[in-house]
Amino acid sequence: MMDNEWANLTDEQREFRRRFWRAPKSVMINALTHEGANTYPNCPSVPCMKTRGLWIRDLGVEPGRRMYLGTGQELMVLAANPSAEAILKVVVRFQATGERWKLVPAD
């Protein structure tokens, strides 16, 4: 099983695997489709998003863990602990170097 295998890897082996599963800079929102399914006239497309990789494990998220989704205008946030106290401790800020989003502690 992957979970047990990961725990038994050396730091060097983990680093080697991480090189092939880095966090994406962006995620494409596609449309959900069903092969051979009939759709109704004027039926809107259904947005769909998929993410995977060892970078998710590096964040402390293991397979089978429940995450909670918070949404705002053009914003989605996944959180393991969506309590008001946890959310108030972070701010979403765009980090120019590396062109990545980073969660940083609130002042």
Would you mind describing this structure in some detail?
It is a single chain. With 107 residues, the protein is of the alpha+beta class. The chain has two domains: 1-63, no CATH class; 66-107, no CATH class. 22% of the residues lie in helices and 26% in strands. A two-stranded antiparallel sheet has the order 1-2. The chain has a two-stranded antiparallel sheet with strand order 3-4. A two-stranded antiparallel ribbon has the order 5-6. It starts with a helix and ends with a strand.
With strands numbered from the N-terminus, the spatial order across the biggest sheet is 1-2
Separate helix tally: 4
Q: Over all CA atoms, what is the radius of gyration? A: 18 Å
Strand content range: 25-35%
Q: Tell me the number of strands.
A: 6
The structural class is: alpha+beta
Order of helices and strands: HHEEHEEHEE
Q: What oligomeric state do the depicted chains represent? A: single chain
Q: Give the % helix.
A: 10-25%
Please give a quick description of this structure.
The protein has helices spanning 2-7, 11-18, 54-58, 84-88, and strands spanning 30-32, 46-48, 68-72, 75-79, 90-95, 100-105. It is of the alpha+beta class and 107 residues long.
Question: Which key phrases capture this entry?
Answer:
alpha+beta; 26% strand; extended; 107 residues; two-stranded antiparallel sheet; 22% helix
